[in-house]
UniProtKB/TrEMBL annotation:
It comes from Pontibacter mucosus. The lineage of its organism: Bacteria, Pseudomonadati, Bacteroidota, Cytophagia, Cytophagales. Residues 1-61 form the Inner membrane protein YgaP-like transmembrane domain. InterPro entries: YgaP-like_TM. Pfam families: YgaP-like_TM. This is Inner membrane protein YgaP-like transmembrane domain-containing protein.
């Protein structure tokens, strides 16, 4: 999998995922908390299937080169 999530987007995804988990826990909503795992996972892997489907790549060329090695 080639990187298609940039550094800033990665941090935003992880924070958004943590926020969803927190909101889900506060309101006792397991589906909302479970949905928070998706942005965390895509942020940590730095690959998003939705980005790949629409052809978006947030990684800079230098980042892509380093991720392949």
């Amino acid at each position: 999998m080639e990187c298609n999530v940039g550094i800033v987007e990665q941090k935003a995804r992880v924070l958004a995922g943590l926020a969803l988990i927190g909101i889900g826990a506060y309101y006792d909503s397991k589906p909302l908390a479970a949905a928070g795992l998706i942005p965390i996972l895509t942020g940590m892997l730095r690959w998003c299937p939705l980005n790949a489907a629409i052809g978006y790549n947030g990684c800079e060329p230098e980042q892509r080169r380093h991720d392949k090695n």
